[in-house]
Input
Amino acid sequence: MNNYQEENKADIKPGEHELLLPHDFDGIKELDNDPPRWFMYLFYITIFFGVIYVFHYHVFKQGLFPEDEYKREMDLAAAAKGPQAELEIVAFTDEANLAKGQELYKQKVCNSCHGDLGEGNTIGPNLTDNYWIHGGGIKNIYEVIKNGVAAKGMPPFKDQATEEQILQLASYVISLKGSNPPNAKAPQGELYIEE
Amino acid sequence: METERIHYDNKIVKYFAYATIFWGLVGMLVGLLIALQLAHPIFNFNTAFLTFGRIRPIHTNAVIFAFVGNAIFTGVYHSMQRLLKTRMYSDLLSYFHFWGWQLIIVLAAITLALGFTMSKEYAELEWPIDIMIAVVWLAFGYNMFGTIAKRRVQHLYVAIWFYIASWVTVTVLHVFNSIEIPVSLLKSYPVYAGLQDALVQWWYGHNAVAFFLTTPYLGLMYYYLPKQANRPIYSYRMGIIHFWALVFIYIWTGPHHLLYQSVPNWAQTLGTVFSVMLIAPSWGGMINGLLTLRGAWDRVREDPVLKFMVVAVTAYGMSTFEGPMMSTKLVNAITHFTDWTIGHVHIGGMAWNGFLTFSMLYYLIPRLFNTKLYSVKWANTHFWLGTLGILLYAIPLYWAAITQSLMWKEFTEEGFLRYPNFMETVVQILPMYYTRALGGLLYLSGAVLFVVNIVKTIRQGSFVADEVAEVQPLPTYPSNRMEGEKRHAWLERKPLQFTFWVIVAVVIASVVSIVPFLSVKSNIATIESMKPYSPLELQGRDIYIREGCYTCHSQMVRPFRSETERYGDYAKAGEFVYDHPFQWGSKRTGPDLLRAGVPGGKMYKTAAWHYNHFLDPQKMNQQSIMPAYPWLITNALDTSTTAAKIRVMKWLGVPYPEGYEKEANKDLMHQASQIAAELQGNGIDITPDKEIIAMIAYMHKLGRDIALPGGNEKTEKDIKPAPDLLEDESSLTQGKALYATYCAACHGPEGQGNAVGPNLTDNYWLHGGTNDDIFHSIYNGFPEKGMPAQNAMLKPEELQKVFSFVISIIGTNPPNAKAPQGEVFNR
Output
C-alpha cells in the first residue's frame, strides 16, 4: 500500500473556500488572490524608472556616457594635481632615505628582473657592478627608472612614484655598488667611471 | 465517467535523481578544488589538466548542466506525468535523453580537462558536443510536447508554463550562440567577432542563468512547494503576471554584463533598464511561494524540506534584487570583475538551485521508494551545515570584492595609484579566499550527509518502478473560447498557442538587441592600424584559450582613471574585429592584459620575463597565486593546424592575403626564431618550436597595433569610398600635373619613391592596396608620418584625377625604384 495515498487533500484554511479556483493539478489548488498591491506598484515604479532613464540619457542627453564620465574624471584629476617641486638629482646617502629606497625596490618588484640583491637574472642586468647599459651615476639611473627603457622591457615608474621616491630608489641602487652578491650576473654595458 | 489505470514511469525519475546526486558531489568537489587553488597555487599540482583555467569551466559546467540539469529533468519527468495525468510520451525518448545527457557530461569533462574549449562562459564545449546537446535537447522537447499532447487534464498548470518557456528559450540560445566554424574535430571559431561575439555570448550567458537556472526551478517550486506545504497556491493571477513579465523582460538584460565596456551606449542602457524592471517579475515567484506558506509556518519550523525551500526561495529573492542593483552603472563600476560576481552566483547556485534540489530530492526519494526519510534529524543538520556553508562562502567574497575594488581605485595625494602593483590587492584578500574554501567544505559535507541519508532511505524502502494512478479521460472542450472563459484560461488549454506566444516574447527581445549588430558593420568604428593576428600569434591565442587564461585575466580596460593609469588606454570596439572568440573575460583574479604588448606601456614585459613567469610565477612574484605552466616550455607547437586556422579565419572575413594559408607556417617560423633568438640572447635555452614562443608572441600582440600611428578609431563616415577611376587622357594628364605639384617631392616624379616616401608603382602597400584604401590614404593622409591630408588642398574632382593617375602608374617599373615596403597586394 502506498504510504502517500492520503496526502492529496490540500489544507484549506477557513475563509479560503470562496477564493478557491476550480483548479486541481495533482492535488494542487490555487487561490484567486490579487497580487499584493505593493508588488504591482513596485513593478510600475521600475517601468517608470526605465522610461525616465532612457529619456534622461538618450532623448534629453543629460546623463554622461562612460567616455564623458572618463573625460570629466581625468580633467578633475589633472586640476587636482599640483606642480611637483623641482628636485635636484643628487644621490641620498643617509640611512632613512636609503631604507625607503630599499622598501621601494621590493614594493615595485624590481627583484623579479634584477634579483633580490640586485644581482641580475635572465631578464635584467646586474645592478651591483660598475657596468651600465644606459650609463651609470645617479642622473642616468634616475632617468632610466623614471622613464623606463621601452624597447628592453624596463617600465617607466613616473606614473607610480613621486620624483623623490624615484630618487630614493636610484640612490639605493647606487648604494648596491660593490656589494658582490652571490650568483651575480656577468657585467653588461660599459664601465662607468664617476666624473 | 470511467476511470483508467495508468502507470507513471518512476524509473526515469530515479535515474535522473541518481545522476543529480552523483554530479552534484562531483561539481561541488571540483568547486572546492578551485577554491583552494585560488587560495594557494600549490593546488594546481603543476599539471596541465588540473590547473585552474581548465578546472574552473569543469566546475561551472558540472554544477549548471550536470547537477542542476539533471535535477531539472528529475523534477520535470516526475511532476509532468502527474500534472498531466499521463505517462511520458515515449520511454525510448526518455532513456535516450538520460543516456545522451550523461554522455555529454562525461565528454564535456574530458574535453575541458584536455583544453578543448570555445572559451565562451557556460558555452565552452566544442562543436561536436554542441551538436549532441542540440539533438538530446530536441529529443527532450519532443518527449515533453508529446506528453502535453496526450494529457488527461485540459489546463496546463503554471509549472508546465515554466517548463515550456525554459525549453523554447534554451533551444534558441544554444543554437544561436553556438554558430561556429570547425577547424578540426575539436577546434572551431565562432562566426561572431569582438563586440558581436560579446553581445551574443552574454545574451546567451545571462539567459542560461534565466532559463536554465531560474525558470525551470520556478516550475519545480510551483509543484514541490505546495505539495510539501499542503497549501493552495496563494495567487493564480500573480503566476500569470510574473510568468509573462519574466519571460518577456529577462531576454533583454544580457548587456548588463558589458557595462562600461566596448559596446554601444544604447545596448548598455537596455541592459540596465530591463534588469531593474525585472525585480518585480522575479520577486513574483518568491512572493507567491512564501505567501503559499501562510498558515503553514509552524510546519516550516519542524520540517527540514520546507526549511530548504524557504531559504531557497528567499535567496532567489535576494539574488534577483542584487542582480538588478549590479546592473546599474553606479554599482557595476565597483562590483564588476571582482569576487562580488562570484558571491552573487553562489547565492543563486548554492541556495536557490542547491537547496531547492535538496528539498525536491528529500520529498521525492521516500515517495519513489514508498518509505519515510531515514533521518529527519540528519536532514536538519544538513540544512544548518548548508546554510552556514553559504554564509561562510558568500560573506568573505563580498568583503574581498569591496576591499579589492577600493584598492584598485585608490589614488595617493600625489595622484598615483596607491597600489600600482596588482599583487598587493590580491594578497589582501587571500584570507577571504581561505574562508570561502571553508564555506564550500561545510556545504559539501552537508551534501555528503544528505547522500548517506538518501542511501539509507533507499535501503529501507522498496522501489515503485511503475506507479499506478487512476485517472479520468480528458474532458472534451470546444477549441474556441467558450462563453465567459477568460482569455488566459483558454490559452492554458491550447499548448501550441501558448508556446507560440512564448516564442514571440523571447524572439522580439533577441531580435531587437542582437540583430542590429550582426547586420550593420558600421556599428563598429574601424582602427586603421589593427592587423590580423600573425600565424604565430593566432596559435598563441589558441593556447591562451586552451589554458583558460580568460578565467582570471580580462582584456577589457574600462574608461576609468584607475584602469587607464594601471593598464593603459581604455578599450575601443574597433580593436576586437579579428577576435574569434572575444576574450574580454568577466573576472580579474590577475591583472588585465589588453595592453600587455604595448612597448613602453604600463603592462609590457619582455620575452624573457614572460618565459620565467610562465615557468615559475612565484619566482617573479613570491605571493603570486598564478599556476605555473612548465608544459608550455616542453610542448612543441602543433603547426599542422595553421593552414586550416587561417583558412577558417579568412572565411570569417579576416583579411589575410589570397593563398596565405600556404605561406603562413613560413612566417610563423620566422617570427618564432626571432623570439627564440631574443630569449637565447638572455641566456635562456629554448628552441623556436615550443608553445611558449607562440604564447609570448600573443602577449606582445595585445594592444600593440592600437599603440601604433593610426591607432585611432575611425567611424564609417570618415572613410571615403574611392571615386570612379578616370581613364581618359586629359584627366590623367591633369592628374599627372597635380601629382607633380603635390606628391612628387616625397614619392618621386614617376612614383618610384625616395628617401621620404614609399614607392607607389610596386605591389606593396603600407596602408592597404585596394582602391578604397589608396583613396583613403590620399584623402585623409597620415599626418604623423608626414603625409598630409590632400582633402584639405584639393577639390573633389582634383582628388579624383590625382587618384586615377596614381592607380595608372602601378606596375610601371620606373628606374631607381625604392625597395618595396608594407604588404603585398595583387591587383
User: Anything to note?
Assistant: The beta strands of chain B are 4-9, 180-184, 187-190, 466-471, 526-527, 713-714, 764-765, 823-824. The mean pLDDT of chain B is 91.
